[in-house]
Amino acid sequence: MCGILGIASQSDSVFPQLYDGLIMLQHRGQDASGMVTHDGEFFRERKANGLVKDVFRAEDAEVLQGRIGIGHCRYPTAGSLSAAEAQPFFVNAPYGITLVHNGNITNTAEQRAKVKAKYSRHLRTDSDSEILLNVLADKIADAIKVMGTSDPKQTVFAGVKMTMERVQGAYSCIALVDGVGMLAFRDPNGIRPLSVAMRESDLFGDDYAFASEDVAFGINGFRKIRDLNPGEAMLIDLEGKMHTFQCVEGELTPCIFEYVYLARPDSLLDGISVYKTQIRMGETLSRQIQAEMDAGLELDAIMPVPDSARPVALEVAKRVGVTYREGLVKNRYVGRTFIMPGQGQRQRSVRRKLNAIPLEFKGKSVLLIDDSIVRGNTIKKIVEMCREAGAKKVYVASASPPVKFPNVYGIDMPTKRELIADGRSTDDIRVELGCDGLYYQQLDDLIWAAKEGNPEIKRFDCSCFDGHYVTGSVSEAYLDGLENSDRVTEKMEDKPSSAWNRDKLAQGA
Questions:
Q1: Does residue 303 sit in the same domain as residue 428?
Q2: Of 277, 268, 172, whose CA–CA distance to 228 is shortest?
């Protein structure tokens, strides 16, 4: 879950536009930010750990010159947390290519070996994005050997086609190709979002932009055209003309977790409104809560865990006829705890992030609604806060089903042992969280809530809920490798918060 953005302008410097667009995508990654522009001769780059507002300064406008550029805000799911792994990545041949990537490649070991052995390329990082870039460069070079250099657009498209036939996993990418233009492509399953927009200009021709979410377009005056199709590549050439190529056949199976938590509510992904999906999630969840109330559950108030659960909570409260209250106040200067790199950081940040209003809790039975429960750290601390604020009873509802399986397509939950629902019943989880009742959305209801926005989508990637990986290439050996990776171990080293977790870790589960 990273944010990627590319802008090709016929008249203006893109640095301030990339900056504004990345600010709109900051929710997709807070670890690092990067940008590359092209001035017609050289690539100009700046990247570092930190938020967009902290990495870039006004004086960077003097360096990052050019009317075409790409940007990235990083949420690490592969490789280390080093600033060296911030994107964009660059290779100098063929042409000279710099690339940003959102997603995760699942056959990295195989591709790393081929890149290093067959093509004698040196890799500077452990990032799967750097591997993807080098595979792309290799395949474009292969296409040049066969097709020549008379039409670089066709050799680039041919290289993307061969790349899609070789790499597996999730990838939405934007790249700058020196002397050719700006390239964007999306994996054959369309797991991660990517869309294209246009800005008309009577004087210099049309400008184009690509982004993870369409919220990055409006701030710069772009109008969304459409989402890229799975398996499709687009190229904006140096004259500002768009070229499209369906590299391989694809079937749109977007990640359903985008609509639960990752994307902003004002985004439209693959024809589906994130906000309306969350409203429908509230509609289906309300039926379960109503059934509990008919069976004797008494509630004084329904409250969201801000901010992403707010639409769901509002809809549940309206449908079951219980007072809606804002009992938790969010500190907007603290990042999203889910995407913080370590368990300890996530746990410590909860108190900085949220504060309870005692008057809304004292002597009351409240239902807290969260968008999802992944590791359980945040909601467990929140339940404690509610009790300290005087709540008589604290119930919890999750707008999504139990997260039981690793996500391997670009969400930072690659191992079962960090998931609170792994090997536990709902009542076991309730006990661990310390709440008086726990209710989960049903998976069929979540799928309906998303699919209602675009009935043409036949299925979604729901792998973190059902363990079915849409690429069909995720082996047990691959999952075991993730489970025992150094990065996961580092993340988990301060995790054990219960005897259950300690036992699971001791067993190597």
A1: yes
A2: 172
